[in-house]
Amino acid sequence: MKRLTLTRFMIEEQRRSGALPSELRLLIETVARACKTINHAIGKGALGEVLGSLGSENVQGEVQKKLDVIANELLLEANEWGGHLAAMASEEMETIHRIPNRYPKGEYLLLFDPIDGSSNIDVGLSVGTIFSVLRAPADASGREVTEQDFLQRGSEQVAAGYAIYGPQTLLVLTLGTGVYEFTLDREIGAWKMTDGPLKIPAGNCEFAINSARHKQWSPAITRYIDERLAGEDGPCGKDYNMRWTASMVADVHRILKRGGVFLYPADHRHANKARLRLMYEANPMAFLIEQAGGSANNGHERILDILPTGLHERVGVILGDREEVETVAAYGREALATAGS
Ligand code: F6P
Ligand code: MN
């Protein structure tokens, strides 16, 4: 079967819409190429001596795995010299990475989580790379890009996607005109389209949540999960399944393909404590999910409408099947109204 390659897909998209600048196409090609290299390193596992931790901590206070650092370096190196970027930001780096003066600069900003779900690395389970692309503010050309330039709402993203390193190596991409899945043909090194435009199937009775955190849940989240756990005998009148891989990429990918809802709510007891990062995880995933007909919020506000106040800001995330996400939000509103009355 003849399949569309990523390169051809983007060239045709450029011709069709006229809205895909060559620089952006180069950016996506470069990220996709870096993901192939990351895939290669991950695939070697213990044989490549890439497993285990470094003993260092990242800006988030998390122990860095060797592969976190390797993947971060690969993404920086691949994207530095092409002239398509003004700067980069990564979950693994405290401050932004400006393009060195020896290289030309472009108009885009690239943000990434080099290895998502890294607790899975050493046990040979699925991990991924998440990326998000913003435009640098118009007044940034001719001056140094600052962290402030990155602090844009998720709705400003011009592209987002992830690679998933699992039984197959997949690239899932949106340029704002639908979501497409490409599978890496490992023999020839090309990304070939295998699905899309993706539409989240409605009505799949499945949710993904780390239930060990139930003490941190708000009354709305507790109600939503309890009702689903009650299954056939509860208010939903049907049995649900629970799935959790501890890799957001894998959990979100399953939801994109099969339906259901993913929840990593903020800690109800500590106002600002949440697990997932707005700019490297929540925003790109929310963009993909919305492009596939789903929705994404933090319990009360659409993720893509949140104005970030810091590069490493964390946020509660509820995303997937539009109706399920809306049910959680409605429970939140009801709980608020009860508390206020
Ligand atoms: O990047 C954060 C992350 O690893 C996500 O990929 C994943 O969804 C989540 O954390 C797993 O959290 P926990 O360790 O609570 O299961
Ligand atoms: Mn992550």
Shape: globular
Uncertain ranges? none
Instruction: Indicate the multimeric state.
Output: single chain
Q: Summarize the biggest pleated sheet.
A: 8 strands, mixed
Task: Tell me what the structure shows.
The chain has 341 residues and is an alpha+beta fold. The protein folds into two domains: 6-195, Fructose-1,6-Bisphosphatase, Chain A, domain 1, CATH 3.30.540; 206-340, 3-Layer(aba) Sandwich (D-Maltodextrin-Binding Protein, domain 2). It has eight helices and 17 strands. It has helices at 6-17, 22-44, 66-80, 147-150, 219-229, 248-258, 278-291, 322-340, and strands spanning 53-57, 63-65, 85-90, 97-98, 108-116, 127-135, 159-165, 169-174, 179-185, 190-195, 206-208, 241-242, 261-264, 276-277, 295-297, 314-315, 317-320. The strands form four sheets. The protein has an eight-stranded mixed sheet with strand order 4-3-5-6-7-8-9-10, sandwiched between helices. A hairpin with a 4-residue loop joins strand 8 and strand 9 (179-185). Helix 2 (22-44) runs antiparallel to helix 3 (66-80). The model has no long low-confidence stretch (mean pLDDT 95). The protein binds 6-O-phosphono-beta-D-fructofuranose and manganese (II) ion. Residues 116-117, 210, 246-248, 251, 264, 275-276 line the site of 6-O-phosphono-beta-D-fructofuranose.
